[in-house]
């Protein structure tokens, strides 16, 4: 049965709601987002015509603090994807123990086919539609799939112009020097590796140097995952990248290992690798799905949702002992059940990729006090926070004999339910 991401998020929630014996009022409140905005964004295109884009902002739950979550630009964006991602942000902020709720935004558009000026029009138009419903103490956006620091600055500028005051903590993921935090760009990928390191140590009694890895994706999350894996001496056998020109993915494999600096130097800003240069450097080019069936120890899906499904999960090699989810929602519940049955350990997305939002929280804190930390300080705080969140999940999984995803959900749901209860939203 193929599920859309929101049905996936609800199925995961329902499972743990049963395990926790949650009362009906908590289920009714937490199964669906509390607020949703759907709007049109008219943009004057470079050829003089007006094109109307559809935008969304969904706030799933803000019992623990202002909403937090990125904005995606994607041609196949749907409201259910945004709902799922907003829901996962609630659990992500709670498992990372951040004083923030869960939200997400999106625009149906393909930035690869839009000029800079047109993209700026979408960013400013998005803010004009929700300027009164987002903000430092309401709901704080950030980058996500195909959005970056430049998009955040256009949004910040529009927001501050509308409100007539400076409010840099209203949005995160901004470039350093204009309210951004050092290490924010790298934070999600680095956090994936810190979590993997802790998972290997506690679950398999191994270190990063003992294992080989295949990564899906070569966008922001995957790139800095690979960079940190290189730094810490872990061999990355392959990376699967989407090729914008051919509209399909390819897996670039090299037995001696994939090197971040080298691959990045031949990759364009949307993650498309130069095929000829890759061949010259000794990378073998395989089918886009090949990353999944390689004989490695660890898989890191760090691209989009539903990469590993019930239909393709049998392709995962017998050698794979662990899957660490860098993307949001890369493993469907059906695939997860089959893989858990085989003994594969799955480190869930909202724990593994929480480094991004953790650093976003640090960025907000720095903006609000208008005092910015050194990179070392940010990374030290990030690592400490991720290690503590991961170990709490591993302990819970052991104590309750449940999967890591169920354990992470138990911690998050418990924190959010307590906040809702104290506010009087549920009994
Ligand atoms: N988009 C990122 C995520 O899915 C970061 C969100 C944020 O920094 O608010 O976690």
Please tell me about this protein's structure.
The protein is of the alpha/beta class and 427 residues long. It is 44% helix and 18% strand. It has 14 helices and twelve strands. The chain has a seven-stranded mixed beta sheet with strand order 9-8-7-6-10-11-12, with helices on both faces. A five-stranded mixed beta sheet has the order 1-2-4-3-5. Helix 1 runs parallel beside helix 3 (79-95), helix 1 (5-19) packs across helix 14 (404-423) and helix 6 (184-204) crosses helix 12. The chain binds glutamic acid. The site of glutamic acid has 12 residues, from strand 3 and helix 12.
What's the SSE blueprint?
Blueprint: H1 5-19, H2 24-30, E1 35-44, E2 50-61, E3 67-74, H3 79-95, E4 102-108, H4 116-130, E5 139-143, H5 149-163, H6 184-204, E6 212-216, H7 220-231, E7 235-243, E8 248-253, H8 260-265, H9 275-280, E9 284-287, E10 298-301, E11 322-324, H10 333-341, E12 345-347, H11 349-352, H12 355-369, H13 375-400, H14 404-423
Parallel strand pairs: 3-4, 3-5, 6-7, 6-10, 10-11, 11-12
Antiparallel strand pairs: 1-2, 2-4, 7-8, 8-9
The structure holds glutamic acid (GLU).
């Amino acid at each position: 049965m193929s599920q859309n991401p929101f049905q996936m998020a609800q199925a995961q929630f329902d499972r743990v709601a049963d395990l926790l014996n949650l009362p009906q009022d908590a289920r009714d409140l937490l199964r669906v987002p509390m607020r949703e905005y759907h709007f049109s964004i008219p943009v004057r295109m470079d050829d003089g015509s007006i094109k109307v884009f559809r935008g969304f902002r969904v706030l799933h739950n803000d019992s623990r603090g202002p909403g937090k979550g990125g904005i995606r630009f994607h041609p196949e964006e749907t409201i259910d994807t945004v709902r799922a991602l907003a829901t996962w942000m609630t659990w992500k902020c709670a498992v990372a123990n951040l004083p923030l709720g869960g939200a997400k935004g999106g625009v149906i558009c393909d930035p690869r086919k839009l000029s800079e000026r047109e993209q700026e029009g979408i960013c400013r138009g998005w803010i004009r539609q929700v300027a009164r419903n987002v903000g430092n103490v309401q709901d704080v956006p950030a980058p996500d799939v195909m959005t970056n620091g430049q998009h955040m600055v256009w949004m910040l500028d529009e927001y501050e112009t509308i409100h007539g005051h400076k409010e840099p903590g209203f949005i995160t993921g901004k470039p350093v020097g204009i309210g951004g935090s050092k290490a924010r760009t790298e934070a999600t990928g680095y956090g994936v590796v810190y979590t993997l390191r802790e998972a290997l140590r506690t679950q398999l009694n191994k270190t990063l140097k003992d294992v080989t890895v295949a990564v899906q994706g070569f966008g922001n999350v995957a790139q800095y995952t690979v960079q940190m894996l290189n730094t810490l001496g872990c061999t990355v056998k392959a990376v699967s990248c989407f090729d914008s020109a051919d509209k399909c993915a390819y897996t670039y494999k090299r037995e001696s290992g994939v090197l971040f600096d080298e691959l990045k130097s031949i990759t364009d800003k949307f993650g498309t690798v130069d095929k000829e240069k890759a061949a010259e450097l000794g990378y073998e080019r395989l089918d886009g799905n090949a990353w999944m069936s390689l004989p490695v120890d660890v898989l890191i899906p760090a691209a989009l949702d539903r990469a590993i499904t019930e239909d393709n999960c049998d392709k995962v090699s017998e050698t794979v002992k662990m899957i660490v989810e860098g993307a949001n929602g890369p493993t469907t519940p059906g695939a997860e059940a089959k893989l858990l049955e085989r003994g594969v350990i799955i480190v869930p997305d909202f724990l593994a990729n929480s480094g991004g939002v953790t650093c976003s929280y640090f960025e907000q804190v720095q903006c609000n006090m208008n005092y910015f930390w050194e990179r070392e300080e940010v990374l030290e705080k990030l690592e400490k926070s991720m290690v503590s969140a991961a170990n709490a999940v591993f302990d819970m999984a052991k104590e309750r004999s449940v999967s890591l995803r169920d354990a992470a959900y138990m911690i998050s749901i418990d924190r959010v339910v307590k906040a809702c209860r104290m506010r009087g939203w549920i009994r």
